[in-house]
Design a protein that fits this description.
It is built from 11 helices and 7 strands. By secondary structure, the protein is an alpha/beta fold. It folds into 2 domains: 43 residues, no CATH class; 204 residues, Rossmann fold, CATH 3.40.50. It binds zinc ion (ZN) (2 copies).
């Protein structure tokens, strides 16, 4: 480290100590760094039980644990369980968006902590924690894979191992946000595969796939399908946020 960069490091440390901590949403003052002020916090919709035992959609009425919603009863998703910390709107949407597209990787600890809590049951006996991959061209442009940042942090605190290159995106796809529900399924069909060197380790394993948001679930569904085909015993999905109902996507 050069003397100059060391001085810059000290200057930054000094600024961190000297400046009061700011709310991650509105930048207003807060007591502890990496948190939200009370007003921004109260606007978040944390997902709590009762929820669908399959896709994790919150129920508006009381339901027995592990009951399934109508959509999961009609057709079980390729994954076993999906869990998310927050409904994707308002401040939650804003935070995820900044984390994903605006280089605000400093939000990773906060978002990971929420996902860890929502996914505690999934993470407990996971063998591997794998992020949804970006196509290498998109990774090159964005410089980081937001899902890998989350997955790596989740794995670091868990008995599970981080599997950043388990899933590969073998075909470039259009951003799902540009497409309607049906087109999303077609867009990602055949876009993923399990990397050859992972085939043996996937067989019989419990894999948790991590992404920032679940919208229609088409991307996560496509990832789960290839893991199943490779013999994974259990495939769960964990995201920071999800849309309330797929129609909202
Ligand atoms: Zn705030
Ligand atoms: Zn469901």
């Amino acid at each position: 480290m050069s003397p100059g960069s060391r001085a810059a490091g000290f200057a930054r440390l000094f600024l961190d100590l000297a400046l009061p901590p700011r709310c991650a949403c509105c930048r207003g003052p807060v007591a502890d760094p990496g948190t939200l002020c009370a007003a921004c916090w109260s606007e978040l919709d944390f997902i709590v039980e009762p929820l669908c035992g399959g896709c994790g959609r919150p129920f508006a009425f009381e339901a027995e644990a592990e009951s399934l919603c109508g959509a999961c009863m009609a057709r079980r998703p390729a994954y076993d369980r999906a869990r998310s910390a927050l409904i994707y709107r308002g401040n939650a949407r804003d935070l995820v968006h900044r984390f994903k597209f605006r280089d605000e990787t400093g939000l990773a600890p906060l978002l990971t902590a929420w996902a860890r809590e929502a996914g505690a049951a999934l993470l407990r006996d996971a063998d591997w924690i794998a992020p949804v991959p970006l196509h290498w061209m998109r990774l090159y442009r964005r410089r980081y894979n937001q899902s890998a940042l989350l997955a790596g942090r989740l794995a670091a605190r868990q008995g599970a191992a981080f599997a950043p290159d388990m899933l590969r995106r073998i075909r470039r796809t259009r951003p799902q946000t540009e497409l309607g529900r049906r087109a999303r399924g077609r867009n990602v069909a055949g876009a993923f595969r399990v990397a050859p060197r992972w085939q043996d380790r996937v067989r019989g394993a419990h894999v948790v796939i991590v992404d920032d948001v679940l919208t229609t679930g088409a991307t996560l569904e496509a990832c789960a399908r290839v893991l199943r085909r490779s013999g994974a015993a259990r495939v769960d999905v964990l995201t920071v946020a999800r849309v309330d109902s797929p129609e909202q996507a």
